[in-house]
């Protein structure tokens, strides 16, 4: 069985949790719809965002150079990292040169991608994730299961138990307000005592060198304004050309992510604080190579709003961990095979191809079309099981021949009506493992249609 | 790191191609506000968890603050400004219970207020206090983010932000809780006309 299907099966064993997650995410999707419907010209905004990203991806080198020179003029130190290891080394050297032992970090999928935390910890540096959801999963030693809602797979009872053990909250008290207050107090101390703060980047403006960081909790700002040294880590694709472009992306981002009109804090970081240091690390890690993949390069437009996860019937019912890639869900299933096609060959199949992801995407990435292209590529390269190849091969022959198609339909209808269940539901019938088969009608649609057409003519 | 820079830029030059551009770039969509900017702003601020107090003038705003909130630091006051300089200790900043700042602009579509380093002497202030109070001239309300970036110079200082409502999180079972890390409470005093500029001396 494919890895995703197997892991999804494990997730679904806890039916109550799976149902809860499915409903919780669908509610986020509904909030998104409400927020989007209140904005006149929403579709136009999506078109504009997509259009701007087209321009960015077509001229990325120029925008990066423009951004770098503006940032340097602002007194920012700009670093370039070709891969994850260079990013880790770069951050480590900044931390070390400031003799820092305590680092606070706000949510950044990029530092997850680069496995930054365990690396810094190896050098005796204490790294604290400060987004509440991130703190929860850090205390549980888990990766995020969603890019916007990292602890969506956990119930409040589990968080209460965890906080009781790690933060000494009262046992059995599950009130989210109480637990949040405990985390606030715990992290306030971390903010005030850290020497370096690390954040991700939502947008980087080429013309001004500004780095935009969006949070609801205020954790990124508590970190970067309390610590003398701030480090912003960004992928090369985070650039936008002009400050005015922010108007378009900020109107889309929070509405599409959670249904809020904007995040609580939208911080524009331009220059280091007086007496402080501001660093920006620009990471490639395979992104420039993706530009050459004409079938998939659109996925570089992604602004990580998470809407495609919330809407996906497969993600909602299989959980983030079944994808085992930093970015789960539909967009992750496009990105994962770009990084390793063999390892993640099952992910493009973890989709119903219903197209809901494409419909909600803030920047109009044709996600389900890309998943479909991946499937074709993976099958053409014979990366799926020999049974599947045999089935596809046979199906291709049957569907191409009128005679074979009619005959096999007749056989199937006869078999479903007459064969005993134990033969129809043999172990080799994978479809039947979890599903009932339909009651077969006596005639095919084709036969029915022909009969009715003749009747009508009479 | 120089070599990585060249490597990345060369890769991009090698791999990039002109993506299909739509023949006509769509224009900006501006917010259409039938109920008036002020009405929309007030509704939106409330929906994101903020409080709104409407007053007639700036001096009435100050009077309201003095008579309703205790231990409030007003950063329009030059003595207060000087007391919390950029090299102020974080512990001292952490002890501020509530602060009053002057908002530069309010955005009707999302309830956000623009603040930058001309409004606070230390960047931590808008986040570290428990109760944040913002005075805003109602004539400074703009329709949407397009107008915001057209009218506000966001690059005037080294740091600026749009702030919409109090700090919040829903990371535990999607239950909304105010006061995650930043201010637990946000009060906006919306005043009408400007009175004579107060002297700092």
Q: Overall pLDDT of chain A, averaged?
A: 95
CATH superfamily of chain B: NagB/RpiA/CoA transferase-like
Largest sheet of chain A: 6 strands, parallel
Helix proportion range of chain A: 40-55%
CATH topology of the largest domain in chain A: Rossmann fold
The geometry of chain A reads as globular
Count of helical segments of chain A? 23
Contiguous low-pLDDT stretches of chain B (5 residues minimum) are: none
- Radius of gyration of chain B equals 21 Å
- Beta strand % of chain A: 5-15%
CATH architecture of the largest domain in chain A: 3-Layer(aba) Sandwich
| Quaternary status | heterodimer
CATH architecture grouping of chain B: 3-Layer(aba) Sandwich
Largest interface (CB within 8 Å) is between:
A-B, 96 and 77 residues
Decide which structural class fits the backbone of chain A. alpha/beta
User: Mean of the pLDDT scores of chain B?
Assistant: 90
Can you walk me through this structure?
The complex is a heterodimer of chains A (458) and B (201). Chain A has 458 residues and is α/β, with parallel strands linked by helices. Chain A has 23 helices and ten strands. Chain A has three domains: 1-36 and 295-384, Orthogonal Bundle (Fumarate Reductase Iron-sulfur Protein, Chain B, domain 2); 39-288, NagB/RpiA/CoA transferase-like (Rossmann fold, 3-Layer(aba) Sandwich), CATH 3.40.50; 387-457, no CATH class. Chain A has helices at residues 3-13, 15-37, 42-58, 60-73, 84-97, 109-113, 116-122, 132-139, 156-166, 176-193, 219-226, 245-258, 287-290, 307-311, 313-318, 329-339, 356-360, 367-380, 386-400, 402-418, 421-424, 431-434, 445-457, and strands at residues 77-81, 102-105, 126-129, 196-199, 203-205, 211-215, 229-235, 239-240, 265-269, 277-283. A six-stranded parallel beta sheet of chain A has the order 1-10-7-4-2-3, sandwiched between helices. A four-stranded mixed beta sheet of chain A has the order 8-5-6-9. The termini of chain A are far apart. In chain B, the strands form three sheets. In chain B, strands 1-11-6-3-2 form a five-stranded parallel beta sheet, with helices on both faces. Chain B is globular, with a radius of gyration of 21 Å. Chains A and B meet through α2, α3, α4, β1 and α8 of A and α1, α5, α6, α7 and β8 of B. β9 (265-269) of chain A pairs antiparallel with β8 (159-163) of chain B, so a sheet runs across the interface.
